[in-house]
Amino acid sequence: MSGLFRGRKALVSIYSKCNLSGLTSPPPIEVRFSESAGRGVFATRRIGAGELIHTAKPIVSHPSLSSLDKVCYFCFTNLKSSNLLPFCSDQCRQHSKIFYETEKQADWSAFHDYCRTQGLKYPLLVKRLACMIISDAATPETLDVLQPATLSSEMILLMEKEYQLLRSTFKDAGFTDEQIAFLSKQWYINVLARIRINSFRIELALGSYEDILLSAAASVEAEAAVGNAIYMLPSFYNHDCDPNAHILWIESVNAKLKALRDIEAGEELRICYIDASMDHDARHTILFEGFGFHCKCARCMSND
Ligand SMILES: C[S@@+](CC[C@H](N)C(=O)[O-])C[C@H]1O[C@@H](n2cnc3c(N)ncnc32)[C@H](O)[C@@H]1O
Known about the structure:
- This is SET domain-containing protein.
- It comes from Anisodus acutangulus.
- Pfam families: SET.
- The protein is α+β, with helices and mostly antiparallel strands.
- Helix content is about 35%, strand content about 15%.
- The chain contains nine helices and eleven strands.
- It has helices spanning about 10-15, 90-105, 110-120, 120-135, 155-170, 185-200, 210-220, 280-290, 300; strands spanning about 30-35, 40-45, 50-55, 60-65, 200, 205, 225-230, 240, 245-250, 255-260, 270.
- The strands form three sheets. It has a four-stranded mixed sheet, with no helix packed on it. Strands 3-10-9-6 form a four-stranded mixed sheet, with no helix packed on it.
- A hairpin with a 4-residue loop joins strand 9 (about 245-250) and strand 10 (about 255-260).
- It is globular, with a radius of gyration of 20 Å.
- S-adenosylmethionine binds near residues 293, 295 and 296.
């Protein structure tokens, strides 16, 4: 059993890492072992349908390449044409100032071009995390508590080029060996293995009528996802093809976890990682190829 889950103290330390926002009291949940899916999130009291269970701020986030100039560097809120810097507010600028300055020192065009042509999004999160580590806004161990994916040797081989590009971009920008000492191939593989099964693809639910019109026009040519992000507590939610909770984003990268139906104290809270309207075989293939597991939820076990 992971050292993190030996006793009450361990749970408190998870909450303190969770960056929960907008809450005055701890959320009505706890992280503990489930019967069939490793660690999971459980209700500590009855939660009513539609209730906001908690909110969460990301540990690391990065806009998709097609959204880079259109959304806030930090929170993904749509930028106005009057914004000179890639921030929607002074608060976001202050929050990300140190790692934004680090990121800005390097020329990312070759790295971005490679990610664009190969259709890669996860290396962008590693790039952002690396900038945060260099700036002391994160540590190399930041994602260690999250479950890693099992990567095949082919996958690891494919990472070589993006890893080398990331290193050379920092080196070409004048970062010293000491500053990027953490950036070993093994560190890169470990981080990507965690990003692979724990990152969320962010699609914003839009607030204003203007936003909805703009989005309708943009979605004809761009992908719907505005970016990707990793959170602490939301990463412990297991999957169910008939979930009792869901995660949503309204106007920014800050996540809201909501109950889809009444949930009893002690019940596990589960979200759906994929499109639940697909049939049994399609769901199984996607969950196995994308997340590396055979779903054991009640709906799958009844062959629905
Ligand atoms: C995002 S993590 C969820 C938290 C994870 N259980 C942990 O201990 O950190 C996703 C992983 O949890 C496990 N998992 C989630 N939902 C599952 C399910 N319905 N059936 C079996 N395993 C599941 C799989 O190992 C999957 O790769």
